Recover the amino acids of this structure.
């Protein structure tokens, strides 16, 4: 390994930093993914659940208002109910638009939320006609109540005039005609008033035709008086006017039973439309409940995904952390060993040199700080060896010179 000690330490630190960065990035990505899943629940699924529940509540309130409208028998009380219904319809449309806007953020449930809204639309299309037919039925009922009183008053007036008219004339034929008119009027009055208690339109139509025949017969009999001295009676014109009034009230499109038939038909139509609307409402609410179930499932799945991502992220972080700890330990071991081994050799050689062994040298071939230290120690040992070698040579020379001097001195003494 030709790296310097500083490079080894820096490299080990860099590896540890990289592993820590990997842990941080993994954690951040996991948190973002979890946050995205939870945001889907908090920002979209939860409001959709709340709004769906609100839509169901709105529809049920609207249905309650419609049923209340159907029970009302006073025209003056219909307006406030219709206004409340219109407000609830507007609220539902607002809720529906809001939930659709939320669904655009979640393609997985967009189709479920959009779903078919036909039943709700059909319901809201039908109710105005339910209101109008019920209102018409009440208007016809008011007309019937008014006409009934006029009809009975006209009948009583005719009955009274028949007796007064009969007493005022002498003609037996005229008296008989007037008596017949009185009987017809009483018969028609009883039939009509009894029919007002019936609900079977076919029976009422039959009574109405019979009443028309009775009125026509009464008019024919009165017309037969025109050739008699009855026309000179003071009651003739009064009788004629009363009979015309009775006829206009009893028969024709604006007659009592005709209006009553209109009331019954309007009421029947209103009930039929309401039944249809309620059927649509039942299907609409069932569809909304399916949407709520689907949204709950989506929320639960999203929460489950978030929990799974938490577990996965934890596992990844633990694995990377263990790898980081292992890598850090390995790096520390390698760096320490790369320092300890050459340092021990240098210490050993210096110890031997200190003990007098100048033959030892460091054999490391390194390009780091320890290589430089080894070269310096080897140079030091070489220089010490050279110095000691020089000292030894000088000592030998001095010893030889001393020996020669001693020899010369001894020779001079002998001579």
């Amino acid at each position: 390994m030709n790296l310097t000690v500083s490079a080894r330490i820096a490299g080990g630190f860099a590896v540890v930093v990289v592993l820590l960065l990997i842990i941080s990035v993994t954690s951040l990505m996991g948190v973002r993914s979890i946050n995205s899943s939870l945001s889907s629940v908090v920002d979209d699924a939860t409001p959709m659940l709340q709004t769906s529940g609100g839509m169901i509540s709105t529809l049920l309130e609207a249905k309650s208002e419609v049923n209340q409208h159907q029970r009302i028998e006073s025209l003056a009380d219909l307006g406030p109910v219709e206004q409340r219904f219109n407000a609830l319809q507007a609220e539902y449309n607002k809720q529906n638009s809001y939930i659709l806007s939320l669904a655009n953020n979640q393609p997985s449930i967009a189709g479920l939320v959009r779903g078919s809204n036909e039943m709700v639309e059909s319901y809201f299309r039908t109710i105005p006609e339910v209101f109008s037919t019920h209102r018409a039925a009440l208007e016809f009922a008011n007309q019937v109540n008014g006409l009934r009183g006029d009809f009975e008053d006209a009948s009583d007036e005719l009955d009274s005039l028949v007796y007064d008219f009969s007493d005022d004339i002498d003609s037996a034929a005229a008296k008989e005609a007037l008596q017949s008119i009185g009987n017809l009027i009483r018969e028609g009055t009883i039939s009509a008033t009894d029919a007002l208690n019936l609900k079977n339109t076919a029976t009422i139509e039959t009574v109405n035709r019979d009443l028309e025949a009775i009125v026509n017969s009464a008019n024919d009999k009165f017309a037969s008086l025109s050739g008699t001295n009855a026309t000179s009676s003071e009651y003739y014109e009064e009788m004629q006017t009363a009979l015309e009034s009775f006829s206009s009230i009893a028969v024709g499109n604006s007659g009592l039973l005709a209006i009553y038939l209109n009331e019954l038909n309007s009421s029947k139509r209103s009930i039929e439309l309401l039944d249809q609307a309620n059927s649509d409402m039942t299907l609409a609410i069932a569809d909304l409940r399916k949407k709520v179930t689907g949204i709950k499932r989506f929320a639960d799945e999203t929460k489950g995904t978030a929990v799974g991502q938490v577990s996965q992220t934890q596992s990844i972080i633990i694995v990377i952390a263990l790898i980081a700890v292992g890598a850090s330990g390995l790096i520390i071991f390698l760096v320490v060993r790369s320092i300890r081994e050459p340092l021990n050799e240098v210490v050993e050689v210096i110890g031997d040199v200190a003990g007098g062994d100048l033959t030892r040298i460091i054999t490391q071939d390194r390009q780091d700080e320890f290589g430089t230290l080894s070269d310096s120690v080897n140079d030091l040992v070489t220089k010490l060896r050279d110095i000691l070698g020089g000292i030894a040579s000088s000592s030998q020379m001095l010893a030889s010179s001393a020996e020669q001097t001693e020899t010369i001195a001894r020779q001079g003494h002998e001579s």
The mean pLDDT is 84. The chain is about 85% helix and 0% strand. The radius of gyration is 60 Å. The first helix runs from residue 5 to 71.
